[in-house]
Design brief:
The structure is a homodimer of 226-residue chains.
Chain A lengths: L20 E2 L2 H10 L2 E8 L2 E8 L1 E3 L7 E7 L3 H5 L5 E13 L7 E11 L2 E2 L3 H15 L12 H6 E7 L2 E7 L17 E9 L3 E2 L9 H10 L4
Antiparallel strand pairs in A: 1-10, 2-3, 2-6, 4-5, 5-9, 6-7, 6-11, 7-10, 8-9
Organism (chains A, B): Kribbella solani
Pfam family, one (chains A, B): Pyridox_ox_2
Protein name (chains A, B): Nitroimidazol reductase NimA-like FMN-containing flavoprotein (Pyridoxamine 5'-phosphate oxidase superfamily)
Chain lengths: 226, 226
């Protein structure tokens, strides 16, 4: 795969806190590969609609990489998306940053914002590929350990492909930054780390199979807070 | 506080999976009170912009309750918001639902979507109140254990008030639901639970105070996965 650095456009250039902007593609991919869900923003009837959804990533078949999204063919967000610029945001919240001053309270986070006009995937092969990338993004290896979608199920599902060309990444990490004159105030300052973790996989009541390796790996990779 | 049930409008009425819709206000408040961050969607230059941000809730001073948002007076999202309908989404992801069929894979989640035209808070008293609600939403009790914002800091900060009048709540829980004819397929099915947890609070390098009770409580309340 070849790729270009993130090319800031007017809408992806950070206007504030520019020190928090990452400009390389790997930073974008890291945020996307580490996330499980995104918030998809579309404009419907003149107002924004923001819905959480799963996504998949393919970095192997295009210069900048592709994000796959899916939804029911009847879903407002998915129906609206292919005709317009959408905004997809993936956010990791890594810690609550408690400063001595209310004003300098902050959040440690990594977020990616992607803009683009999604392409409605119509070819059967890419549609299946996109759906597999979504399932495998949530649980690597899962797409080969399930019954694949049949023709009727594929017909009920819309798949969108969004190029990862226009994007921005913003991160904050580290301790709180107070004003010089506040450093001796008698208030505790520090970070409460936040983690997204998995619990023990729970068999469906009607399933007595052992938890397979790919499910176990997924849970372990999320794991408990370090 | 008196409150009315959620009044579904065209844009908050679920078109699909109606069994996942909660229509009482308490379900909305539960999702909001349990969350820490939202995704704020606005329309800027004709396209959607979705950014993660903190929020605070006040259920005590109006019929339906208010969500407070804040940002730099220079922030695109906050500058755009008071002139238009925004969409604020709060999402909890509770589990990965792995079915025997790819098609029936799902996510256990609780999400709230709020629409409204935010009011720019201009009164000094409500502005401070709104900021305190945001800080106390992240860490209850924090607003009284910090240096309050001074006039200069308040002038740099915009606070928005969004009525919780028009909203929808959607949830999914429980095991995977496969087609009858797939129940004997030899694929593991179940749920990988997901949790947002806090780690041990980390003092800033320049702070040797003991972790105070309100910080400890916040971390404990998030706690480890049950």
């Amino acid at each position: 795969m070849t790729s270009t650095p993130l090319q800031p456009t007017a809408r992806t250039s950070l206007r504030r806190s520019k020190e928090r902007a990452a400009t390389d593609r790997q930073a974008l991919y890291d945020v996307l590969l580490d996330g499980m869900f995104c918030h998809l923003g579309v404009v419907v009837d003149g107002h924004p609609l923001v819905l959480p959804t799963a996504y998949g990533i393919d970095l192997d078949h295009s210069a900048d990489g592709i994000m796959y999204l899916h939804g029911s063919v009847a879903a407002r967000s998915v129906v609206a998306a292919p005709e317009q610029t959408v905004c997809v945001t993936v956010t990791h919240t890594d810690g609550l940053v408690l400063a001595r001053s209310a004003f300098h309270h902050s959040v440690n986070y990594r977020s990616a914002v992607i803009f683009g006009v999604p392409r409605l995937v119509t070819g059967a092969e890419e549609k299946l590929h996109g759906l597999n990338r979504i399932v495998d993004h949530l649980v690597p290896g899962r797409s080969t350990a399930v019954r694949p979608p049949n023709r009727k199920e594929l017909a009920k599902t819309s798949v969108l492909a969004l190029s990862l060309t226009e994007a921005s990444v913003k991160t904050r990490s580290g301790p709180a930054n107070d004003e010089e004159e506040d450093l001796n105030l008698p208030y505790w300052t520090g970070v409460i780390p936040l983690h997204s973790v998995a619990g023990e996989p729970e068999n469906n009541p009607d399933c007595d199979l052992l938890v397979p390796a790919h499910v176990r790996s997924r849970a372990n990779r999320l794991g408990a807070p370090s």
